[in-house]
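Researcher: Sit down with what I've pasted below and flag anything odd:
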Amino acid sequence: MTEKPSEHQVHLTDPRALRAYAHPTRMALVGLLRLEGPFTATTAAELTGESVASCSYHLRILAKYGLVEEADPGGPGREKPWRATAAYTDWPSYSEDPAVASATEALNAAVAENHFHRMIRALETRHTLPAQWQQAERHSDAVLYLTPEELTALGERVDAMVTEFTDRTYDPALRPEGARRIAYVQVAYVAPEPIADKDPGRAAHPDRPRDSA
């Protein structure tokens, strides 16, 4: 059984921690430790394709900011196993501190890119899935008009539904027969307004070039 992290989430507020986490190898290591850990830097290298030295370095950086820790510091052997300190990572969605805001933007972009690459890899092998799984997968989107309060409430409702299944991550006995690991990504953002909504004249003449003056 995968060891369940001792904490529910770790909250990052230090700009240095935010920028340190915004690295694809480090995000991969934290994710793997949550699902497969504890494990050593040697195992981390096998799972990520990175060198042992590289994984050791990145694990130490993650430990510096409280994202991972040695699972058995006083145990025998030179190479110690590592574990994740929390099941989730959280960071500010808004900050008046320019340094925090800038680091948060960089981390958000890195996370979005990470999700995109993982989804592309999944799509490349999707044709090998049984028809039942291909039909069950969700690839959809919608444009909604919401207030900040409504968007927050919607997110909380979805979070509550997802939480019903999270204990299965760390206890295989809770998983029904046929259950598989599912990447469930929840994204909602304020979409840029279409040009037509800002420029009625352009809506009437969509092919008209903008005046240079």
In short: Residues 202-213 have pLDDT under 50 and may be disordered. The radius of gyration is 21 Å. DSSP finds nine helices and four strands in the chain.
